[in-house]
Amino acid sequence: MILVLSFDHYEQGTDPVIDWLIYHKADFVKITIQDLIQTDTSFNIDINKGKIFVKGKDITNEIKVVWYRRFEAELLVNIPKGKHSEQALFELKNEVEVTITFLKRILSNKKWMPYNDGIKLDKPEVTFLAEQNNVRTPKSIITNNKQDVIAFQSNVKSDLITKPIRHSSYFIDGEFTYSIYTQKIKKEKLQELPERFVLTLFQECIDAEFEIRVFYLDGQFYATAIIITEKENNVVDVKLNYESESINWIPYKLPNEYEKELDAFMKSINLNTGSLDIMKTKEGEYVMLEINPVGQFSAPGYRCNYNLEEKIANWLISHDREEKRIG
């Protein structure tokens, strides 16, 4: 059985894969955060025996493969507004987090995608570990003051960019939705920064020929070059150009040696899947910006006819069959 851990509602990277699982009549069950709290689905964990029950049925031994897809991204619960409602929600989130951690413990002997210990890797960790494995990344710092930023810029001798330290969610205000994007900071603007600010990530701005989005699946690379013919001034986040007629999505083949380098790195950090952002510099060098273990892949995959959703479903099905065969 394939266990899918994901959203309660539609999720662009999950539901199309589930469609393929249904098409192939795969044996799977989907569990969401909502199944752990307010739901019509009966869910039960026998803590002493480490058994998982869904609708009264023990599925623990039936589960062979776990597909983790943004399972912890949301917690929707109706708590009556009152004096302690915010604290009650905080406590409930802690309860759910502990339960999820225990679920991972029970299922630690299953085949995971991505592997459990690779799910939580964040930008600073990936950058640090990449450097240890001779995979080039942008020079980066996290700081809370202007003088360190000025000194850092003087060292890298380029403009800087700033972006969230971890993946950021959306800010919703009525009918409007806002998001945080990567922002370029020119050298002459650094003096306008306040002397002190909250911890912020700064990186050297790579002088790139183009950006490459890569979906990695157990040793296979599906790369998409993003060619922007008329890039807006000072816009460094490609997501701000998605609707532009000047953006082109081109199937791309990374050099074999670079694929081997990345594959070895992914294996070293125990990731069998992930979405990678890479820059190709004007000198022909490749610079890896970041890896998101549960990143989105639908847009580049669709534009390049990679059929990634079917490939993921086939991976899950084949490993489920293999694990059943073994044992």
Describe what is shown at a glance.
The protein has 8 helices and 18 strands. The chain is α+β, with helices and mostly antiparallel strands and 327 residues long.
Strand-helix topology:
Elements: E1 2-6, H1 15-23, E2 28-32, H2 33-36, E3 43-46, E4 51-54, E5 57-58, E6 65-68, H3 85-106, E7 111-113, H4 123-132, E8 140-145, H5 146-156, E9 160-163, E10 171-173, E11 176-178, E12 183-185, E13 196-204, E14 208-217, E15 220-228, E16 247-252, H6 256-268, E17 273-281, E18 286-292, H7 298-303, H8 308-326
Parallel strand pairs: 1-2, 1-6, 6-7
Antiparallel strand pairs: 3-4, 4-5, 8-13, 9-12, 9-13, 10-11, 14-15, 14-17, 15-16, 17-18
Helix pairs in contact: 1-8
Structural domain count: 3
How many strands in all? 18
What CATH architecture of the largest domain do you see? Answer: 3-Layer(aba) Sandwich
Average pLDDT score: 89
Taken as a percent bin, the fraction of beta residues is: 25-35%
User: Structural class from helices and strands?
Assistant: alpha+beta
Q: Whole-number radius of gyration?
A: 22 Å
Overall geometry comes to globular
Question: Terminal Cα separation, in Å?
Answer: 13 Å
The main β sheet shows up as: 5 strands, antiparallel
Low-confidence stretches: none
What strand line-up does the widest sheet have? 16-15-14-17-18
Q: What is the helix fraction of residues, given as a range?
A: 25-40%
Number of helices: 8
In words, what does this structure look like?
The two termini are 13 Å apart. The chain is globular and about 65 Å long. Strand 1, helix 1 and strand 2 form a beta-alpha-beta unit. With 327 residues, the chain is an alpha+beta fold. The chain has a five-stranded antiparallel sheet with strand order 16-15-14-17-18. A four-stranded parallel sheet has the order 2-1-6-7. Strands 8-13-9-12 form a four-stranded antiparallel sheet, covered by helices on one side. Helix 1 packs across helix 8. It folds into three domains: 132 residues, Rossmann fold, CATH 3.40.50; 103 residues, D-amino Acid Aminotransferase, Chain A, domain 1 (2-Layer Sandwich); 67 residues, no CATH class.
